[in-house]
Specification:
By secondary structure, this protein is of the alpha/beta class. It has 14 helices and 13 strands. Helix 6 links the parallel strand 1 and strand 2. The N terminus is likely disordered.
Length: 371
């Protein structure tokens, strides 16, 4: 009896050692394969066994299969599969721009709005002509006196000296008879590019930021893509009082606090050239009249126009901004109240609020610590 008992104990002990070794392998190998344990269909049916010789055989057979694959072989196989997935993903991305109809022109047009600041205008022309994708620069001129020949020549020389294009940058003045903020969105018939970058003469962005924003616009050419976000929100207190929707305008700090925006200001934004035609010839005349009379809200009008045409929000691109001029009308008292009035007036004219809020932001992760 003692001999039989000793043999039984040894046999049970060896089975327990086999089970414990197999259990260890089940924990390690599925973690490499990304398998889930537990539940029905997981790894638990292999682990759970109670008594009976019939249930030991599958465990030993599977244990033998795992032993035939060394850990380094399995790791190399998984790395090779991952490399194939990455390469295949890159191959799938290549035809993306080939199958879609690209915008006309390989670059974009810079549309500079200026007013009696020739020194700032020359800095802007010198800077933006150095960006690789800039094909032409149009200067929106609304001053009572036409640009002098000396100014034209100095700007032409600045564009020629700084241009990185073989053919140089085409420089043109769009001279307007009357002074109006609507002039910055007047339709231009001879534009060679679909992409337009609207900018004020006292604001500079690095060419790297411009390249990023332009690439974003190319992927969504109907959207407004810009660097200066703003927002609107529904004022429930005023809505209950007036029994109609009432919206408030939110500046940069509102965007920073909430992480939400519904507009990008046209002082630094890409958009399709078709919006110049829509603004000049198809937008409600009452909006243009308001902009001309009160000299404000032309950028909100363009945001309404874009949102109404697309039903989609704009796209905010994070970029470094350099303001080389003095503060504009945004620094004056009552600015937010006037912008709030524009929001509600334009919404009534459109019959609805077309602006769409979003919290998406495009960041160049190569040059950002936090993204």
């Amino acid at each position: 009896m003692r001999g039989l008992r000793a043999n039984y104990i040894n046999r049970v002990g060896s089975q327990q050692r086999v089970e414990s070794s197999f259990l260890f392998r089940l924990v390690v190998v599925p973690s490499l394969l990304g398998m889930r344990g537990g539940g029905s269909g997981g790894g638990s049916p292999l682990i759970a066994s109670s008594g009976g010789g019939g249930r030991r055989a599958p465990l030993k057979f599977r244990q033998t299969k795992f032993r035939t694959f060394p850990s380094w072989t399995l790791s190399f196989f998984l790395f090779f599969l991952l490399l194939l997935f990455v390469v295949a993903g890159q191959w799938r991305r290549l035809p993306r721009y080939e199958t879609s109809s690209p915008p006309s022109g390989s670059g974009y047009t810079v549309l500079i709005n200026t007013w009696k600041r020739n020194d700032l205008l020359k800095q802007s022309v010198s800077h933006y002509s150095s960006c690789a994708d800039v094909e032409s620069i149009h200067i929106v001129w609304s001053e009572p006196d036409r640009p002098s020949n000396s100014l034209r020549e100095s700007l032409r020389q600045a564009a020629l000296q700084n241009s990185k294009n073989c053919d140089g940058v085409d420089l043109k003045f769009d001279v307007n008879e009357a002074d109006s903020l609507n002039n910055r969105f007047r339709d231009i018939k001879d534009l060679k590019t679909d992409a337009v970058f609207s900018i004020d003469d006292d604001v500079l962005f690095p060419c790297a930021s411009m390249d990023l924003a332009f690439s974003v616009w190319q992927s969504a050419p109907t959207a407004m893509v810009g660097f200066v976000p703003r927002m609107h929100w529904l004022d429930n207190e005023m809505r209950n009082r007036n029994r109609e929707s009432y919206y408030k305008y939110g500046g940069w700090w509102s965007v920073w606090w909430t992480g939400t925006y519904s507009m990008v200001l046209s002082k630094a934004a890409f958009f399709h050239k078709k919006y110049l035609d829509l603004y000049t010839n198809h937008m409600p005349e009452s909006i243009r009249q308001y902009v001309a009379k009160y000299r404000n809200c032309e950028d909100i009008a363009m945001s309404f126009l874009s949102a109404n045409a697309t039903g989609a929000p704009p796209i905010w691109v994070k970029g470094r901004i350099f303001e080389i001029g003095s503060s504009g009308i945004s620094s004056l008292g009552g600015h937010s109240q006037r912008r709030t009035h524009c929001l509600n007036l334009f919404a009534k004219i459109y019959g609805e609020m077309p602006l769409v809020a979003t919290n998406m932001k495009v960041v160049d992760s190569k040059h950002s610590w936090f993204w």
